[in-house]
Amino acid sequence: MWNLPNLLTLLRILLIPVFVAVFYVDAPWAAYAAAAVFGAAALTDWLDGYLARRWSQTSPLGAFLDPVADKLMVAVALVVAVQADPRVLMALPVMVIIGREIAVSAVREWMAEIGDRAAVAVSKLGKIKTTVQMISIAILILRESIFGPWLYGLGVALLYVAAILTLWSMVLYLRAAWPSLSGAKQGE
C-alpha cells in the first residue's frame, strides 16, 4: 500500500491546497510558482502509473486514488482559472470538461458494478486528451506571463481542443458501454 506510486498519488492530492494558496498570492512570481506546482502534480500523474506498471506495484488503493487525484487537481485548477478569467469563453470548455469527468466516472463505476469495467478502460485518446488538458491548464495558470498575451490565447485554444477531445472520448466511452446501459448486451 505504501509504495512509491501510491505516495506520488497522495502527494498529488496534497499539492492541491498548495497550488490554490500559491495561485492567490499577490506577488509577481505567484503565477510561475502555481504553474510549477500544477506541473509537478501533472508529472506525478504520469509517473505514478508508469512506476506502478513498471515495478508491478499496482494496487486497489492506487487504482482508486489515481483517477480521484487527477480529477480533483484538474477540477480545482479549472475552477481557479475561470475565477481568474470569468468569461463565457473560459466557462464553457470548463463546464464541458468537468461535466464529462463526472459522467464518465459514473459510467465507469456502473460498468465496474456490473462486472464490465474493461469495456470502458482508459483509451489512447483519453491519454492525449489529458496531455492537452494539462498543457492548456498550465499555460492558463501563467496568466499574463513574460511571454505575452499570445501564450494565454494558446492556452485558451488548447483548452477548447481538450474540451473537443473530452467530448469525443466521452462518446467513445458511451458507445462502448451502450450495450450494457441499454440492456442490449448479448446473453441478457
Descriptive notes:
With 188 residues, the chain is an all-alpha fold. Helices cover 79% and strands 0% of the residues. The chain is built from six helices and no strands. Helix 5 runs antiparallel to helix 6. The relative contact order is 0.12. The mean pLDDT is 87. Its EC number is 2.7.8.5. It catalyses: a CDP-1,2-diacyl-sn-glycerol + sn-glycerol 3-phosphate = a 1,2-diacyl-sn-glycero-3-phospho-(1'-sn-glycero-3'-phosphate) + CMP + H(+). Belongs to the CDP-alcohol phosphatidyltransferase class-I family. This is CDP-diacylglycerol--glycerol-3-phosphate 3-phosphatidyltransferase. It is an enzyme of class 2 (transferase).
How much helical structure, as a percent, in the residues? over 70%
Query: What are the secondary-structure elements, in order, as H or E?
Result: HHHHHH
Which residues sit in consecutive blocks of at least 5 with pLDDT less than 50?
none
Report the portion of residues in β strands: under 5%
Rounded to the nearest angstrom, the distance between the terminal CA atoms is: 38 Å
Major beta-sheet overview = none
Catalytic activity: a CDP-1,2-diacyl-sn-glycerol + sn-glycerol 3-phosphate = a 1,2-diacyl-sn-glycero-3-phospho-(1'-sn-glycero-3'-phosphate) + CMP + H(+)
Main location: membrane
Membrane topology: Multi-pass membrane protein
Transmembrane segments: 7-25, 31-51, 152-174
